[in-house]
Amino acid sequence: MSARAQHSHAAGTVVDGRVRDLQEHRDLHYPVFAKDVGTTAPQELLRVSQVNVPVRLQSEEQDATVWPEDYLIGDLNGVVCLPRGLAEKAVALMESQVEADGRIARDLREGRPFGESSREHRAKVMKVEDL
Known about the structure:
Largest sheet: 2 strands, parallel
Strand order of the largest sheet: 1-2
Number of helices: 4
CATH superfamily of the largest domain: Ribonuclease E inhibitor RraA/RraA-like
CATH class of the largest domain: Alpha Beta
Radius of gyration: 19 Å
CATH topology of the largest domain: Glucose Oxidase, domain 1
Helix content: 25-40%
Structural class: alpha+beta
Low-confidence stretches: none
Strand content: 15-25%
Distance between the termini: 41 Å
């Protein structure tokens, strides 16, 4: 499935469920993110049924809709959905967040307690409501 998605110029795949064969995805250098990993195939064979339609995610942890124009950003820690309308605001926040992280890391290397450093430097971080 990843080979086909890659051939279709997909940037990656997010699965609201379980996947297997992680090494095969990695060997393709194709990003795949899922809730869980297993060793057997899902109950039924999966296939793409729709493209560029809203997807509603429902579980005990979440109840959200991902729209086709939203940004899905994933790494080893998980996937977040950034609504397109908030993208410019999020980018504006990133610089101050990265700077605060750097100052906190410096303080920690110098032996300063995390809580104290975080309170000082996080207070200076721009927040969404400030934009």
